[in-house]
Design a protein that fits this description.
The protein has ten helices and 19 strands. The protein is an alpha+beta fold.
Length: 389
């Protein structure tokens, strides 16, 4: 095992993704910005916002605390959008391959916007609120996503962007204990379901979901009460504030894609191993951008696949690392990689030729000019602990 100082150095190198320029004068601030500074956060540009990458305890401690107890994340930079009207589900299905018509009231579903070539414009969460659809989209894509929806389906559904709301994520095995105190209505709630209820006496709506592989909630709150809610949650002994650095290492261990890195306009949902998000009806009927290519890859298989890769030894393989086969020929590229604290070693994911995508396949990773041995493994690297009831 390497000394702890070496592992902490790996964690400090965890990059803030989708970063704006450090000199960008137009960085936005979430309503929790002053609280982050008060708590001693190191702030970095991310998705056009000035965001906390870590707090004084450091990324490694924040990662481990989230896995053991509960962490609070500010994800208010993400876009919250509502689609209104009886045609909203049918309209949205013309832009995403997900089955929105079959989405039951109070249920949440993961999907993605696709382009005419089957590439992914963004991935998003979609909730059926009964009389409307509630969407959460990525920070770096939200302006383009909203423009895309207004142009393509604005005549069929009313589209509201909620700049007046903040979004917090409470994640970890003790998140349920905290939510039981603050929002008793959450106790029986299952993974990927939605509720409207008070949290610490503040009217909110929340989905039991998250981006760490742990149990938890994403809580939408009026922006003018977000600091009050964050303080109420942080007052619980199980909870500590967590920054973007640990968010990245947690989601990597959970095998979850990061837009702009593991998925983008050059990758299809099938290449990205996201075919589970496309229902039997949508596969049969199509009717979404890129359906011809996506349906062909479903039937015949893609030329490449996203896989989990476990490097041998202790050297991490980071984004952009070349993946080679036994002969030394390039067969793919790492899209996310780093030190996995819960795994106690390096982990990464990337795209390889489909013939080399089976677990157990031996590969090489070219790190600093040296080819290091690795093998394909199933994901997630750490077990998901979602609450399914």
């Amino acid at each position: 095992m390497r000394p702890a100082d070496d592992r902490r150095a790996d964690m400090r190198r965890t990059r803030p993704v989708e970063c704006a320029s450090l000199a960008d004068p137009d960085l936005k601030k979430t309503v929790l910005h002053a609280l982050h500074v008060e708590l001693g956060a190191k702030m970095v540009p991310f998705g056009g916002y000035d965001m906390p990458v870590q707090y004084p305890a450091g990324i490694l401690a924040e990662h481990n605390h989230t896995r053991a107890a509960a962490g609070l994340f500010d994800v208010s930079h993400m876009g919250q959008v509502t689609l209104h009207g009886p045609d909203a589900a049918d309209a949205l299905e013309t832009l995403v391959p997900g089955d929105i018509r079959a989405l039951k009231e109070g249920a949440t579903r993961y999907s993605m916007f696709t382009n005419a070539e089957g590439g992914i414009l963004d991935d998003l969460m979609i909730t059926n609120r009964g009389d409307r659809l509630f969407l959460v989209v990525n920070a770096g894509c939200k302006e383009a996503d909203i423009a895309h929806m207004r142009s393509a389906i604005g005549g069929r559904t009313k589209i509201d962007y909620h700049e007046d709301r903040a979004l917090l994520a409470l994640q970890g095995p003790q998140a349920a204990t905290v939510m039981a105190r603050l929002a008793p209505a959450s106790v029986a709630q299952k993974f990927m379901t939605f509720r409207t209820a008070d949290v610490a006496g503040i009217p909110c709506y929340f989905t039991r979901s998250g981006y760490t592989g742990e149990d938890g909630w994403e809580i939408s709150v009026p922006a003018d009460r977000a600091v009050e809610l964050a303080r109420a949650i942080l007052a619980n002994p199980e909870v500590k504030p967590i920054g973007l650095g640990a968010r990245d290492s947690l989601r990597l261990e959970a095998g979850l894609c990061l837009y702009g890195h593991d998925i983008d306009t050059t990758t299809t949902p099938i290449e990205a191993d996201l075919q589970w998000s496309i229902s039997k009806r949508r596969r049969a009927e199509g009717g979404f951008p890129g359906a011809a290519r996506i349906r062909k890859e479903l039937a015949e298989g893609p030329a490449r696949k996203r896989v989990g890769i476990l490097p041998e030894g202790r050297a991490p393989a980071r984004e952009g690392t070349e993946i080679v086969d036994a002969s030394g020929a390039k067969v793919g590229t790492v899209t996310s990689g780093g030190f996995g604290p819960s795994v106690n070693g390096p982990v990464c994911m990337g795209y390889v030729q489909a013939a080399l995508a089976s677990p157990g396949t031996s590969l090489g990773l070219v790190v600093r000019g040296k080819t290091l041995p690795a093998r394909v493994v199933g994901m997630p690297f750490t077990p998901h602990r979602y609450f399914r009831g």
